Amino acid sequence: MAKTPRSPEEVTQICADYLSKSPSGKNVYTIQSLCKKFRISKNKLFEILAKNNIPKRLVYLSKETEKNIISDYLVFDKLGFYLNFRREICKKYKISQTTLDEVLKRNKVKIRRTRIVSSAFRMQVISDYLEKREGNWRYTILDITEKYQINSGFIYQMLQKEGVTFRRLKNTG
């Protein structure tokens, strides 16, 4: 991903950009934007910062905000909605997924790493996959990924788990 070694000037620029603040006091660059700008991984960025004795940014959340984050997480988790709920929580509270994980760990909330979906959702995806209209398939895998915002691999896993035969293109040769 990145070229090595880095010049001292580039390392200085990385550190300066990481520390830079806007007039309102907000960080000018996100971690992701710095990684993209300098074509480095997050690990490499943090390695450079550590070598230059620059501490990681800390996200300070009020107890009330943490309580709300946990409440949202547990509601989604209990209902069986995995689909982008972590991303939605992060967007709602303007935090990274790493920060979300830190909040959950700090409050001893079990972090679910597997995708869970309700049986109703699973059946809806399968129904969409198998639905025909005027002799043709109504939805392609791509249509389903866009409709539910899930990746195709996850769809294939659901179909396989339920014993659904995959559609194949007919050989017209």
Write down the oligomeric state. Answer: single chain
The total beta strand count reads 2
Calculate the mean pLDDT score and round it. 82
Largest sheet: 2 strands, antiparallel
Description of the molecule:
The protein is mainly α and 173 residues long. The protein has three domains: 8-51; 63-106; 119-161. The chain has nine helices and two strands, in the order αααααααββαα. The protein has helices at residues 8-19, 31-38, 42-51, 63-79, 85-93, 97-106, 119-130, 141-148, 152-161; strands spanning 132-133, 136-137. Strands 1-2 form a two-stranded antiparallel ribbon. A hairpin with a 2-residue loop joins strand 1 (132-133) and strand 2 (136-137). Helix 4 (63-79) packs antiparallel against helix 5 (85-93). The longest helix has 17 residues, at 63-79.
What is the structure about, briefly put?
With 173 residues, the chain is mostly helical.
Task: Tell me the layout of helices and strands.
Elements: H1 8-19, H2 31-38, H3 42-51, H4 63-79, H5 85-93, H6 97-106, H7 119-130, E1 132-133, E2 136-137, H8 141-148, H9 152-161
Antiparallel strand pairs: 1-2
Helix pairs in contact: 4-5
Question: Can you tag this structure with a few keywords?
Answer:
173 residues, mainly alpha, 2% strand
